[in-house]
Amino acid sequence: MEQTLSIIKPDAVAKGVIGKILDRFESNGLKIAATKKMQLSRKDAETFYAIHAERPFFNDLVDFMISGPVVVSVLEGENAIAKNRELMGATNPKEAAAGTIRADFAENIDANAVHGSDSAENAAIEISFFFADREIS
Ligand code: ATP
Ligand code: MG
Q1: Predicted confidence band at 43 (pLDDT cuts at 50, 70, 90)?
Q2: Contacts of the segment 131-136: beta carbons below 8 A, 24+ positions apart
Q3: How many Å apart are CA 102 and CA 35, to the nearest integer?
Q4: Using one digit for the tens of pLDDT, what is the confidence trace for 88-120?
Q5: Running DSSP on this structure, what letter comes out for residue 41?
Q6: Are 80 and 4 in contact (CB under 8 A)?
Q7: 35 in Cβ contact with 21 (< 8 Å)
Q8: Which residue, by CA, sits nearest to atom 16 of ligand 1?
Q9: CA-derived radius of gyration, the chain
Q10: Which is the catalytic residue, given 115, 116, 117, 131?
Q11: What sign for the dihedral angle of Cα 93, 16, 88, 120?
């Protein structure tokens, strides 16, 4: 069993599709091991996306991630990391395959509805950034 971190980003929360996105996970064999809605601080978003600190879009990305509440979840299942990335679709919704979360709910590459961990190493870091062990089951 593998775990991964998902974030439903401010654009999708504002649109009222939290339930529809969580349903994609549960309907495709990913269990919701933990979930909560929260408002990220600027420091939270800068720390979470520190890997992109040198990218030209970093400031816009941080501004976007704190523009409204998000829903962070731990998803669990077989190959959960790859499975979640598959359900999410490509980073740019214009390139995302039909039926993926980003194709169905995202507007553009800045407001792209969801985040998902991209490796086992990052999943462990991201899960412990948001959740205590006793919150995950
Ligand atoms: P995420 O990390 O949010 O799950 P991802 O792994 O598909 O998305 P990354 O390359 O990690 O994509 O980029 C992180 C986020 O930065 C993207 O989700 C997107 O919102 C933003 N981003 C990435 N590339 C660009 C770009 N070229 N222009 C603007 N924003 C971008
Ligand atoms: Mg990424």
Answers
A1: very high
A2: 131/34, 131/72, 131/74, 135/34, 135/36, 136/3, 136/33, 136/34, 136/74
A3: 20
A4: 999 999 999 999 999 999 999 999 999 999 999
A5: P
A6: yes
A7: no
A8: 61
A9: 14
A10: 115
A11: positive
